[in-house]
User: Fold these one by one.
Assistant:
Number 1:
Amino acid sequence: MNSAAAKARWIGQSVARLEDPPLVTGRGQFAGDINFPHQLFMRVVRSAHAHGRITRIDAAAARALPGVFAVWTAQDIAEVPPVDFREGSIPALDPYRQPVLATGRVRYVGDPIAAVFAEDPYVAEDAADLIVVELEELPALVDAQAAPVDFSPGHSSEAAVIRQGYGDVDAAFRTAAHIVELELAIGRHSGVPLETRGAIGRYDAARGVLELHGAAKVPHRNQELLARMLKLPPSAIHVHESHVGGGFGVRGELYPEDVLVCVAAERFHRPVKWIEDRREHLIAANHSREQTHKVRAALDANGIILAIDDRYFHDQGAYVRTHAARVVHMTAGILPGPYRVPAYRAIGHFRLTNKTPAATYRAPGRYETTFVRERLVDAIAHALKIDRVELRRRNTIGPQEMPYPRPLEALGEEIEYDSGDYAGLLAKLLAKIGWDALNEAVGRRKATGERVGVGLAMFVEKSGLGPTDGVKISIDTSGMVNVVTGGASLGQGFETVMAQVAADALGVDYRRCRVVHGQTDRIPFGIGAHASRATVMTASATHIAALNVRRKALAVAAELLQASPDALDIIAGEVVRNDGKAGPSISLGAIAQNLAPTAKARGEREPGLTAEGWFKTEHQVYPYGSHVAVVRVDAETGRVAIERYCIAYDIGRAINPALVRGQIVGGYAQGLGGALFEEFSYSEAGDPLAATFADYLLPALHEVPAPEVLLREDYTSPLNPLGIKGAGESGITAVGATIASAIDDAIGMPGAVRQLPITPQRLRRLLGGR
Amino acid sequence: MEVNPRRIAAAERALAGAAPGDQAFRAAAQAAMAAVDPMEDIINTAEFRRDLVLAVARRALERAAA
């Protein structure tokens, strides 16, 4: 570690968020707040049927309504291709992409059929109601385990079969002392942010630039994607992110609505605004999670895992969206988690159904596989009569085995666990909660008839998706540090964290840093904020850029102060002698003045107190943790009360511990939703049955008792200069698994919980109710 | 439970004149359970809701008497 970072003053401090003042004073700018003169409002007409052939669309009455500017169906935008994958064409999956407007066929309730553009949003909505769509209904497929059908001529509804694995799995099962098998299901649910989606397209004729406002997360990727789809140079399109009321994976992908506002703005030469309503969000934004796993483990007599064999069905919904096969593929790569698994085979059936298309939701693939793997480990412990903690200890990869490569892939990278002591962290968690005493106390309560139980789960997270990130820092003549990143903010504290990192390397107050994100016109490259990557990747690049600027500043200061750069330090924005003695000093602002293009002192140097920094990595980082829950089951009502929840997590290095804890607690709340409440159910005909908050149950304050967080910085990552691992998904990953484990224990039925969410009615059924 | 809240006469009759206690509360809850016509939705069947009446009506009476 270099000297500047070693003297950290801001890194590791829970400083107040820089981004809060506008948000807490009502001056934030969310998609709904963005308005341009002469804008039109768009309303999307959506399919009311799960599957059908469009026989007639009559928009005459809608077009005649005063205030309606235009109505589009697929034929009006015939030159616009289906929504592309983020990484470009994948020939085997291209036929499953979603058209921007349905072309002859609708495939889920919510599928966009037509778009109305009007002078105000109410007229647009009224006009949309006047559009008559006639359909010839087709049978709906709502079960990903049912036999595949034709998606289109020559293309099966099983879009792909994913295979990952290594070792001789069949031999392991032939020689195993024990085999444990389970069938497990994770319910369809997703990110439901407070702010629904929004998109504003604007064509700036003066500059010849098409702008998309609203979609945060991967602005540069969306810029490239739009450029490909609309056949424009990337530099003729700019994407601008605004404030965000929750991202969680669903916001910021390029959806049909984003393409529509861009195409319409360009064609009409008028800004076009679209704000999603809540019902639309629940049927139009990406769903996630729905998988069924048939998993089995081969074990020796001591419970050592010899092999895991998993066959799973991934319910992709009606189309393959921007993520392509990411989630189904990653599922296979990360299922083994913290355990040694000498032989492994995962076969994933990537199947389309007539439901809202699925993609990523916070901890994609990990929430699902942690449920599967940890249920399996609990089942092994029960079958072999081995204590569940002891069984985990026996099978956990140890710190001496790091780095631990595994011939599996996640997000296109070979998996290699970078550092950690999984069992060591579990031991710390168990010590913190007093595991033995806790289990004794719970045992005494059970003896009096209470249905109370303890559950646990371990996990390895995955974060910091590369391959690279660049940051440009320039210090202006007042000494203000401008940090221009290709990162994105989904409300996670991005600006604060980057400012803390830049401030430490530059010797300035973090409040003297301004952080730019999500603006493609400010920096030509960026991968955005997803996969818990922002702090790992963008902060590493920020650190490198800041050190480069520091070096420049010290070189100029050395010349002006007639001292060696080694004898200088920067303290509170002022270059001073580093031996503590009084002497001449110069501010960063003054150095910037001396580097102005016209400044004599600049000499032959490049103008500006500015530098870029690039960080590149071959591997993601793998933070890890464990969850423990104590729950009480009300056998009469099926209600689950959480008495205690504790999350242990090793983040390597916490730039801002309060923000890390916030990430963990927020994730935990969403994890409880998937464990106990949230589910996008469908009727056999493919009608969405959870399209309002009366049926899609989000946990609120009452259902989310505060968790305890044991945040550790035991094992830094060797893969980046600050040793950072990501924070975004650790709180959610193991919640389904842990709650299931605790309920099993509470009702005295090991292995009973095989399906999420564990609704009161499902729990009553497990207990013999109806 | 049902579309609108309503008084359950059978449960009231089971309580009228009876000493507050487990026996009366159970009888009233049983009567309420028999009398309701629960809604049904994707999350909960009518049978499940009916069973809930037994538990929550009894608990409400216990709490009221406590």
Number 2:
Amino acid sequence: MEAITALVKAFLGSLRDLMPIIVVIAFFQLVVLQEPLPNLLSIVFGLLLVVSGLTLFIFGLEMGLFPIGESMAQAFARKGSLFWLMVFAFCLGFGTTVAEPALTAVADEAAEVAAEGGMIEHSAESMEEYANGLRYTVALSVGFAIMLGVLRILKGWSIQYMIIGGYIGVVVLTVFAPDSIIGVAYDSGGVTTSTITVPLVTALGVGLASAIKGRNPMIDGFGLIAFASLLPMMFVMIYGMVIA
Amino acid sequence: MIEWSHFSDTFIGTVSDVLPIVTIIFGFQFAVLRKPVTNLPKVILGFMYVILGLSLFLIGLEMALFPLGETMAVQLTAPEFLQQFRISTSSLDSWKDYYWVYCFAFCIGFSTTVAEPSLIAVAMKANQVSGGSISVNGLRIAVALGVAIGISLGSYRIVVGDPIHYYIIVGYVIVVIQTFYAPKMIVPLAYDSGGVTTSTVTVPLVAALGLGLASTVPGRNPMIDGFGLIAFASLFPIISVMAYAQITRWLNRRSTTEDSENAL
């Protein structure tokens, strides 16, 4: 009985989370565009799927992703091997990014932009080569970013100066990078972090910061994702400069 | 109503997304840490829930919201629609004629961010770590407002055609200034919130809006100007989350000073 109440509560919570989208879409469709809602049945069914999916995801988050992220962070802290922790951080960043569908989509589009802009040849081969190069560049940069972020947690460096330094790097690179890569580079920071990577990386950071004496999980634990969205911008601009 | 092949495709897609993560985690767990996972069955069940939940979530979105939202983005930026609702009297299209686009950008940015699963995850963690002083919904609304403002400003940029880097650089300057005045606790979380906002729900709709807008506005190249909305959506939450913390602190201070004045 208790489990059912919890489930119903979670379900209602997810429904509330989705309410704004439903209201916005309905308002623009009915009031602004003044068109009827097509396939009402399929919309309602789809919404039911979305709500149950979100409920399951949050359940799974607390049962699987959060605990494993934290327990691994603690195990690494106990083991005390900096080398393996760095290898793990790099693999986690690289491995989760290289296969990310959103990144593949952006890389393909970017290849088309580059071909139109005359940066590379307008042939399928050179475009694929360019897109793959971009994908590996971003994945490498996310790997380094998570590594750097973990190192920061271990050493207790303050995040402000590192991020501000990164911003200065982005601004300086913007001046030198070819125009057609800038929009892609700025966007690539946002697309790298997927729905499954974010909870895992957050749990890892917070777990590390709570396992190490003298670190505050609030101040030191967060920030890994910030690095993972800043470094790709710089790497992609450098990639654009090298190619051009 | 729902095709089985579609479901299995999405499911396989999610599994292949999770596979590298699972390989890395368990590879390191067994080869490097050499320790059994505590509560392994529960963790595996949790992973199953995550995969199943995410697949259902995506299928539902593709059935119910994405087609509608994407056509909407196209319709709102179509010349006929703009003609019908124009407010400027000159023959040239002024940026003001796109007011429904900005409004849609704001609303869709806000509402999709509130439903973003990875933001929910980070907000839950932040609430737990801060001992409840950062509320889950407060953080989510602050981030969502940031995304909403970011995307509407980004749409305005596409309409007027300014170079993107001026906006981003000004945004950076604001972030740097805020960093020195915001409560120390919030700074890393604010930086993180820039990256978590744009995933499953927001990106497809925002991309459709950007491309639709860049292909309608005369003189814009969709291949070049269509990019950049995501960059706005990941910069402005940093500003809004720090602002949220600053406002909360200011309100708390004011109420405590009022209390002490009353006590006198």
